[in-house]
Amino acid sequence: MDPHCAAWRPTGLAWTEAGAALEWLSPAGEVRASAVDLGARLSLVVGPDRRCTGLRWDGRRVPCAARASIDAGAKSGQCDSCAAIARTRSVATDTVLDDPREFGVYLAHHGSVIKVGITATERGPARLLEQGALSSMILSAGTLLSARRCEALLTTALGVPQQVHTARKRGARLAPGTASARAAELVAAAEQAAGLVWPPGQTRTATGPVDHTPSYGLPDGGIVADQEIDPLQTGATINGEVVCRIGRDLYLSTPDGIVLLDTGLLQGWALNRAEDDALLTARTTPVAKPRATTEVQHDVLF
């Protein structure tokens, strides 16, 4: 076997109540995690190849049978075949409707917009942390089908979206405002939702707003990246101190300023540890500076 095929490869940034961790997969299907703590140094050198990270199936990670090669510029570490299989049984794509777990309906605050979504209750706040929600509020809990109906109801009746684009989420981090302001907006949206006839199968909850920014290390004053790391190439080095981790993004402090790393770019690469004093040699693109005003336009709140 090619020794590079036997390498542990990152599958992405995972969140739990304990914080963020970079998950790794071996060709045999073993999974391990390395914590990505605030203040820690991320020092990696990119290896010679990038291969598919497989898929999650019934709660466990299954390696790609073909160990398929992945294009260096791909935003995902999954081959087309594994992606297609994953879609055949996914809550997110509505291809599985018989999941017996309890699902909650939530509102997530993303700065200029509040979205609605659902998550398995057993996952706690992980779904909200994975998407980089600044604050959130659980509205109800019950069956999967009823949760989907509630989600559709809020989108139709209140105009609340079910998705928020990455660019908009990143924009919200420039001036996230205060936890109290976000909480007030979530409560106002929840009060509007309370006036709707809730589909059967969901029990309304009395859970209040939760601020997620302390978990990310995101200050009220926001964070602005100077550079963004481009798709990786063999031999490139990433090195910097983690000053913020939010969603699947890491903000690294380097001698040249704050650098934004989308950890999806790491997926599937054979990576090795770099020296702590190594220079950042990965290609980067300057990030457009925000406008002089820090006012956030709340154009689609609820």
Task: List descriptors.
alpha+beta, 5-stranded antiparallel β-sheet, 6 helices, 7-stranded mixed β-sheet, 32% strand, 302 residues, disordered C terminus, globular
**SS elements, strand count:** 17
The computed structural class is alpha+beta
Terminal Cα span:
55 Å
* Widest β-sheet, arrangement of strands: 16-4-13-14-15-12-17
Give average pLDDT, whole number.
Answer: 90
What is the N-to-C succession of helices and strands? EEEEEEHEEHEHHHEEHEEEEEE
* Major sheet summary line: 7 strands, mixed
General description of the model:
Strands 16-4-13-14-15-12-17 form a 7-stranded mixed sheet. Strands 7, 8, 9, 10 and 11 form a 5-stranded antiparallel sheet that branches. Residues 292-302 have low confidence and may be disordered. The protein starts with 8 loop residues before the first strand and ends in a 16-residue tail after the last strand. It has 6 helices and 17 strands. It is an alpha+beta fold. A hairpin with a 4-residue loop joins β7 and β8.
